[in-house]
Each structure stands twice: as structure tokens, then as C-alpha cells.
Design brief:
By secondary structure, the protein is an alpha+beta fold. It contains 9 helices and 18 strands. The strands form 4 sheets. Strands 6, 7, 8, 9, 10, 11, 13, 14 and 18 form a 9-stranded mixed β-sheet that branches. Strands 1-2-3-4 form a 4-stranded mixed β-sheet. Strand 1 and strand 2 form a beta hairpin.
């Protein structure tokens, strides 16, 4: 994190701890100004709390939450009501994204690229031109740090989607390589676990922790190809994953057979001196929180 961004977060946190309602910076203006800089129309959604922008060219609502405003809002609600209100608000046909002030300043470069690519349109890569290979943790995490909002992750197994040499004629672009093969997608899986859940006792379950492609690309059939490969390797009976409600609905996962099994509670955080989120236990103490996750699971037929 740059010193300038860290200073902005520290100023915001200072405003919260001192009970100030005068913002040292205007987070909302920063967000709306950025969208206008990349020539997107920005409409202010009136009478909306938290503050919300609408981007008609992309059909996306962008909900912005400053650290100070969250402290005010959470006094009139609780964890589950907070989640319920967001789920109800975002349940229509339009896409919603929630951006927190700390995420905006800490991951501005990623968010900037994300919306620029959304404006330009994704480039499609077809899974039939790729193959799945195991990859080293350091290679996977280098990829994830640049291409995924949440960055690197602790996991047991890492796999990559690569362009084999006989498919190089497709001219698929990537700055990541495994030998002479271009790396365009990465998945990370936890160690398979035996389930204790009633009705599934003894079933072997895998967990997909991360899956992403290069920013600005969509790998058509990539998730299915990765899931199929992993299932054959580990012989799991099912695979579960979590979808961040603030950035994703999980429709792509559900289209290939994942089923919703649970909404997890919002995760509560404080922000440390480096601007990183650190889990805390109390709603009253939390500096930021999430809207929770959608837990999904895909089941495989018995052999």
C-alpha cells in the first residue's frame, strides 16, 4: 500500500475514533470521479442508504460505504438485519457491487482495471483450447495477487489453465508462463475433508477457495473443466465454495450445477495500521464488515 493511500485510511479511522462527521477526504467523490474519468455515465440513486451510484452502460449499481458512515448505520441495525437488507436490495435483475472505503483505497488499481474491462467488454477464451495442470504455490499466488481482488491464499492444491503448445496458434495473450505454455487461469483447493453433516456422513468433500482468470477475460467452460479435473484427481463426492455477496451472485457456478446450501453470516473486521482487515468478534467493535457469503455445493454421482 502506498503512503498516500495509507494516510487516507488513517485519516478516516481517526475521524471515526474522534467521533467526527467531517470527512478528511470525500470517498464518494473519488469513486464517481473515477467512473466519469473512464467515460461512464454516473447516476446518483436518490434516497438510497448506503450511498449508491448507477452505471447505466453496464447495468450495475455500485453501493459505496465509507468507514464513518458504517459506524452511524450499524447503530440502528444488527448483523443479520444488515445482511437481510442487502440481500433483499440486490435481489432484482440488475447487478450490484458494494465497495468499502478501505477496499477502494487499498485495491484501487485492481478495481480501476476491473471496471475498465467491464466497459470495454471481456475477451473470451475457450476451455477446449486449454488444459489443466498442477502448479506451484508461488506461481499461483503471483497470479492471484495481480488478478484477484482478494489476492493470494493458503491452500493445499493449486491448478492452472494453460494454453498447450499445439494451441498457441489461437494467439491467446498472457504475461504468465509455465515453461512455454501460457497461464490464463488459476484455482486453489483446500484439503478434502470427510463430512459429518447429517445425510452426508463419510462423504469426501473438496473446497474450491479461489478461481479466477486474467482480468478482462472470460474462460468459457473453464470452471467446469477445472472442477472435472479436480474431482477425477481427488475422487471427492462433492465440492463446496463460497461466493462473496458484495461482488458476485454465483450465477456462473450455479449454471454448471452448484446448489446454494447456506448464507453465511457477515464477517466482522477491524483495520490495522497497515490498512489490512483483521477479524474481530463484536458487531459494536467492528470497523467494517461483509454482507456474508453464499455457500454453494456441487454433487457428483456415485461411481
Amino acid at each position: 500500500m502506498t503512503e498516500d493511500i495509507l494516510l487516507k485510511l488513517q485519516l478516516s479511522l481517526g475521524a471515526i475514533s474522534n467521533g467526527m462527521m467531517v470527512y478528511p477526504i470525500n470517498f464518494y467523490d473519488d469513486v464517481s470521479s473515477f467512473f466519469r474519468e473512464i467515460e461512464l455515465t454516473v447516476e446518483i440513486v436518490k434516497d438510497s442508504s448506503p450511498s449508491t451510484l448507477y452505471l447505466p452502460e453496464l447495468s450495475i449499481y455500485v453501493q459505496c460505504i465509507s468507514l464513518a458512515d458504517y459506524q452511524v448505520m450499524k447503530k440502528n441495525t444488527d448483523t443479520l438485519t444488515w445482511q437481510k437488507q442487502y440481500v433483499e436490495q440486490t435481489g432484482g435483475s440488475k447487478e450490484w457491487i458494494r465497495i468499502w472505503e478501505d477496499i477502494w483505497y487499498k485495491h484501487f488499481e485492481w478495481i480501476k482495471k476491473y471496471f475498465q474491462y467491464r466497459k470495454l467488454g471481456y475477451k473470451s477464451i475457450f476451455a477446449r483450447d486449454l488444459r489443466v495442470v498442477p502448479i506451484a504455490k508461488d506461481i499461483a499466488n503471483t497470479f492471484l495477487e495481480a488478478e484477484h481482488l482478494l489476492g493470494k491464499v493458503q491452500a493445499k492444491s493449486f491448478y492452472g489453465l494453460v494454453v498447450p503448445l499445439h494451441r498457441q496458434f489461437r494467439n491467446i495473450s498472457s504475461e504468465y508462463f509455465l515453461g512455454e505454455q501460457k497461464l490464463v487461469g488459476v484455482a486453489a483447493f483446500a484439503k478434502p475433508m470427510l463430512m459429518k453433516e447429517k445425510g452426508f456422513e463419510g462423504k469426501l468433500s473438496g473446497e474450491l477457495i479461489r478461481f479466477c482468470s486474467i482480468l478482462g477475460t472470460r474462460i468459457v467452460g473453464g470452471l467446469s473443466k477445472m472442477i472435472q479435473y479436480y474431482q477425477q484427481e481427488e475422487k471427492v463426492d462433492n465440492i463446496m465454495t463460497y461466493i462473496d455477496l458484495e461482488w458476485n451472485r454465483g450465477e456462473g457456478y450455479q449454471s454448471i450445477g452448484f446448489q446454494e446450501v447456506q448464507l453465511t453470516k457477515p464477517i466482522l473486521y477491524n483495520i490495522n495500521d497497515q490498512g489490512d482487515r483483521v477479524i474481530c468478534r463484536s458487531w459494536d467493535e467492528a470497523t467494517v464488515c461483509t454482507a456474508g457469503n453464499k455457500k454453494l455445493r456441487i454433487y457428483f454421482p456415485e461411481n
